[in-house]
């Protein structure tokens, strides 16, 4: 279902020479890439590659030691601006187990100053019809993912950030998520998906960034797949294993 109001144009994100160190550990080193507005970008990288750190910088939750992140045409947003313009689904965002689906959405809508009519719209968008009176603790993992997405979509965001959105989803949930991502981009949103699931990412994204502390690849999915002789997995492992002689990264080969 398309939202009642057409979304604004997808927002741009530009990382320029971003570095971040934790003590002796260089988590990000001179990271530069841009997200194309209205497109889906997959952020891929093994465990510890720096994906979450990069997302935190994008969201204004962490500051780079060097370089800059430009989000929606300016500095990373303040919390109130971000809530209005960016939809985020990250593991760290929890809901109180005793509230119902409907109540959670009411709380979120009110905090954003949105009319309650928006709640029915997002419930329809994420397919949570009939689950409104369920408490969060009684929801399956898939339903919680849908609720998290419903909250993220409430403000009709220009930018949608999804960190491991497929975790815990069954095949039906994965297919549903894929369609929602495609529709979000079709409606003009810029979407960034951080994921380990190469085969699923391959079906959803336009562009790919492969990260392992620094950017190993940034460009279109087709270009990366072509480099792998037609296989994303081969291209991906050639990049991350070529970048470092460290043990094989833990990446789901779904
Ligand atoms: N607050 C912190 N303090 C110290 N080290 C940190 C901190 N946050 C991240 N790191 C380290 O920085 C590196 C990058 O971590 P990050 O969580 O960004 O990677 P990731 O790509 O998201 O990994 P995963 O796929 O496992 O979630 C890791 O070595 C991690 O241990």
From TrEMBL:
<dbReference type="InterPro" id="IPR003593">
    <property type="entry name" value="AAA+_ATPase"/>
</dbReference>
<keyword id="KW-0547">Nucleotide-binding</keyword>
<keyword id="KW-0067">ATP-binding</keyword>
<dbReference type="InterPro" id="IPR027417">
    <property type="entry name" value="P-loop_NTPase"/>
</dbReference>
<comment type="similarity">
    <text>Belongs to the ABC transporter superfamily.</text>
</comment>
<protein>
    <submittedName>
        <fullName>ATP-binding cassette domain-containing protein</fullName>
    </submittedName>
</protein>
<dbReference type="InterPro" id="IPR003439">
    <property type="entry name" value="ABC_transporter-like_ATP-bd"/>
</dbReference>
<dbReference type="GO" id="GO:0005524">
    <property type="term" value="F:ATP binding"/>
</dbReference>
<keyword id="KW-0813">Transport</keyword>
<dbReference type="Pfam" id="PF00005">
    <property type="entry name" value="ABC_tran"/>
</dbReference>
<feature type="domain" description="ABC transporter">
    <location>
        <begin position="13"/>
        <end position="238"/>
    </location>
</feature>
């Amino acid at each position: 279902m398309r939202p009642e109001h057409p979304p604004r144009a997808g927002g741009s994100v530009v990382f320029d020479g971003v570095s971040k160190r934790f003590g002796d550990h260089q988590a990000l080193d001179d990271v530069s890439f841009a997200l194309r507005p209205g497109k889906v970008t997959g952020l891929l990288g093994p465990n510890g590659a720096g994906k979450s750190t990069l997302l935190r910088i994008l969201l204004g939750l962490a500051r780079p030691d060097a370089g800059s992140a430009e989000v929606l045409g300016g500095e990373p947003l303040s919390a109130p601006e971000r809530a209005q313009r960016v939809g985020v689904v990250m593991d760290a965002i929890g809901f109180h187990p005793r509230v119902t689906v409907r109540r959670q959405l009411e709380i979120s809508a009110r905090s954003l100053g949105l009319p309650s009519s928006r709640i029915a719209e997002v419930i329809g968008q994420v397919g949570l019809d009939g689950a409104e009176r369920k408490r969060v603790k009684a929801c399956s993992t898939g339903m919680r993912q849908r609720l998290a997405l419903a909250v993220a979509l409430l403000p009709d965001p220009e930018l949608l950030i999804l960190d491991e959105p497929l975790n815990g989803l069954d095949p039906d949930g994965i297919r549903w998520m894929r369609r929602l991502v495609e529709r979000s981009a079709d409606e003009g949103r810029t979407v960034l998906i951080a994921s380990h699931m190469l085969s699923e990412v391959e079906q959803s994204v336009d562009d790919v960034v492969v990260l392992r502390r620094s950017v190993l690849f940034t460009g279109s999915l087709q270009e990366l797949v072509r480099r792998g002789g037609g296989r994303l997995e081969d291209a991906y492992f050639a990049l991350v294993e070529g970048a470092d002689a460290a043990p094989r990264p833990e990446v789901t080969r779904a």
